[in-house]
Amino acid sequence: NAGVTQTPKFRILKIGQSMTLQCAQDMNHNYMYWYRQDPGMGLKLIYYSVGAGITDKGEVPNGYNVSRSTTEDFPLRLELAAPSQTSVYFCASSYSRRQFTDTQYFGPGTRLTVL
Amino acid sequence: QKEVEQDPGPLSVPEGAIVSLNCTYSNSAFQYFMWYRQYSRKGPELLMYTYSSGNKEDGRFTAQVDKSSKYISLFIRDSQPSDSATYLCAMSGMDSSYKLIFGSGTRLLVRP
């Protein structure tokens, strides 16, 4: 059981480039989330998904897109990368949306730098 | 003003000390309170959660919520070097349970 996996671990992008951050989970969880973590700012929700084919915006969705074609995968797409998107990105999953009673499992993160 | 405030630390204590980590918040609608532990270069992991006011104990860890003061605490007894990590508080309300609001985290260092 690998849990939540994320690739790549590190990436440097030039301004204006695009990339996809991959996230996969093997726990058959319905709910998946993307967060970004900036120094001194805590975790902020970018997008979330309640199941295959269903996604919705979180707190900071601008500049990002997501898709959920399978239960296992939840990729995050950055179009036209900007320096403000330099951050650590975490993917998480949970069995239900009740985050307060159901453990949310986080991946190891992707460190992205936009220069 | 941030919705959730947390002292970034670092907090350095000797092994065996009692550690107190705290968060204050401004939104009185928050009902669910969580503590996450995050080791360096790892993802956060859920440590404890509580609903509304009161205390909850789990081994060496005690979570405390005071809704009247909008203040939550995490106590660690008999702290160990392996407790060295960043501790994030998080909270949510009944109407938007999927939207966790995180504190910025307190870095804890337990010295052997």
Could you please describe the fold and organization of this structure?
Chain A has 115 residues and is mostly beta strands. Chain A has strands at 4-7, 10-13, 19-25, 31-38, 42-51, 54-57, 64-66, 76-78, 87-94, 105-106, 110-114. In chain A, strand 4 (31-38) and strand 5 (42-51) form a beta hairpin. Chain A is globular. Chain B is mainly β and 112 residues long. Helix content of chain B is 0%, strand content 57%. Chain B is built from no helices and 11 strands.
What are the main properties of this structure?
heterodimer; A: 115 residues; seven-stranded mixed beta sheet; four-stranded antiparallel beta sheet; 11 strands; B: 112 residues; mainly beta; six-stranded mixed beta sheet; five-stranded antiparallel beta sheet; globular
Tally of DSSP helical segments of chain B: 0
Task: Tell me the structural class of chain A.
Answer: mainly beta
Oligomeric state of the chains present here: heterodimer
SSE topology string of chain A: EEEEEEEEEEE
Question: For the largest interface in this structure, which chains are involved and how many residues does each contribute?
Answer: A-B, 25 and 27 residues
Largest sheet of chain A: 7 strands, mixed
General shape of chain A: globular
Beta-strand content estimate of chain A? over 45%
Q: Share of helix among residues of chain B?
A: under 10%
Mean pLDDT across the residues of chain B is 91
Backbone shape of chain B? globular
